[in-house]
């Protein structure tokens, strides 16, 4: 195991910040996989999964069973991990400006276009120079730049997250639907969201768009585009050694399927249980009133359009305002806290059909 620690610019003088990665196997030996956790620093299931992966991969490396290289970033957001407010981790948004930490990763398209116009056609050299030309000066910007730079060296990129109270689900580009099915099979996930262009420049899409730029200009073939995927490991409260070990073993099995590690591959199961939903059909239901949520449905339950999902109970007069589904599909996530305000997201539903108000390039919400 090799450990690399990279210093970031200090937020406060005398208080150093570092990004740390751990790699297993040999560079240049085979295909490469990158796995990170904690980009949203208030989402902790993946952080424990990484710790289990470190122990497992250390054993595999000693047995010379790693056929390529695997890089782990145990905590992708040291800035967010510093944001503890009255005992609660506030690591989803940058408290200095309110920006979601998983938005606005570097967009290299302009830098790449500039190099193309200068007559360059070697993708590796163009990418290297474009990254060198776009290094930010601020701490969070450099952190994102470093994460993207490292991830772009790999053939597989898994970004481990979780939702609030949720079932395990994945987000990826439509190009990688079948590979996402195989990962979902290994993990036991039943829901995959796919899209052509989500927008907002989250980590997984920032990686995809770099390689798509080369493909669109016929400098590379589509088969070279790395599989980048966001893995939502259930909800924020789903942190345990039992689940983390299970998820780590599933990731190892997936890496075996991909030929990166010599291990037992994922057992083939009936893939019909895994449902692929268009991200354009994801419904972020808004609360029609303020009050206490009383649920009739839970994450993982099938829902139909017009179905009664919950009541919002007014704390002043006890009046109940019903919450109805607007899609045919499944409930994926709901809030942990049951006291809500009108207009707040009250559920994430996966719908089978595209919704009229969902537009490519604006499919992600900024909560």
Description:
The protein is α+β, with helices and mostly antiparallel strands. It has 2 domains: 2-273, Aminopeptidase; 281-351, OB fold (Dihydrolipoamide Acetyltransferase, E2P). Helices cover 26% and strands 29% of the residues. β9, α6 and β10 (191-195) form a beta-alpha-beta unit. The longest helix is centred in the first third of the chain and has 18 residues, at 45-62. The two termini are 37 Å apart.
Major sheet size, sense and barrel closure:
9 strands, mixed
N-to-C SSE string, H for helix and E for strand: EEEHEHEEHHHEEEHEHEHEEEEEEEEE
CATH architecture of the largest domain: 3-Layer(aba) Sandwich
Classification by helices and strands: alpha+beta
Mean pLDDT: 96
Strand order of the largest sheet: 1-2-4-3-7-11-9-10-12
Number of strands: 20
Compute the separation of the termini in Å: 37 Å
CATH homologous superfamily of the largest domain, by name? Zn peptidases
Number of domains: 2
Rg, Cα atoms, Å: 21 Å
Unreliable residue runs? none
- Tell me the number of helical segments per DSSP (H or I, 4 or more residues long): 8
CATH fold annotation of the largest domain: Aminopeptidase
User: Which percent band covers the strand fraction?
Assistant: 25-35%
CATH hierarchy, class of the largest domain: Alpha Beta
